[in-house]
Amino acid sequence: MRKLLVLVVLLASGVTRADESPFKIRGVKGLWWEGLPKYRLAMPWVAQHHMNFLMLCYSSFPASGRDWRADYSSEELNGFEQLAAQGKSLGVELCLSFNPGIWSKPPLVHASEEDFACALRKVKTVHARGVHSFALCLDDISRKLEPADAQRFGSLQNAQVYFVNRLWRETKTLDPRPRLIFCPSAYTTHDAAQHRDYIETIGREMDPEVMMFWTGPVVCSPTITRQDAEQFGAWDPAGDAVALLY
Hints:
- By secondary structure, the protein is α/β, with parallel strands linked by helices.
- It has a single domain (3-245), classed as Glycosidases (TIM Barrel), CATH 3.20.20.80.
- The chain is 37% helix and 17% strand.
- The protein has helices spanning 37-48, 74-90, 113-127, 147-152, 156-171, 189-194, 196-205, 226-233, and strands spanning 3-10, 25-29, 53-56, 93-98, 133-137, 179-183, 211-214, 240-245.
- An eight-stranded parallel barrel has the order 1-2-3-4-5-6-7-8, surrounded by four helices.
- Strand 2, helix 1 (37-48) and strand 3 form a beta-alpha-beta unit.
- The longest helix has 17 residues, at 74-90.
- It starts with a strand and ends with a strand.
- The model is unreliable at 1-16 (pLDDT under 50).
């Protein structure tokens, strides 16, 4: 395990001096915030509290979740650009997350050229607006494969490894080089322990440059210990895990 707990995203925290945290990247995620207004309010607050990361949650925009194949509106793209510029001036990294599997019908088809082109277009379009950090989230989805994926990949983990690695190969050539974070379908230690084949394949075959979300022992972990980190890190020996504390 090269590094663990590089990134901590705090939704509700009593931390008053986040820069005193041992974690390199610290910030907030706008869970269930609708649209851009709360992000505009949050950006200076994040900086004032010595944090350096703000994630646009996929629950905030239809084109990030419910209707992920849709394009972002001009108003949203302009808002992303303004937030990214503000974040740059404040030393805060803006990250766009999207979840192609949670609400869209049909959900992501990993074998689909059209779906891959859609994901790549989404990243490239927003990257051109100054957002250089992305989170591809496949948490809380149905784990049943679409027929085309079942035939081609045989398992959820093989389908996800293919899609994420392919997306990273295409996006890492962008300038400036972006960051890609992946949220697996088993993102707690408890769930991962029950799906060892899944998480071990993800940890072994996912490109180690792709970071991975993990919420600790359970979804809402009040604390994460070194032992917790070492247990999960054993399943992701090559890459960087990302602790998400609720």
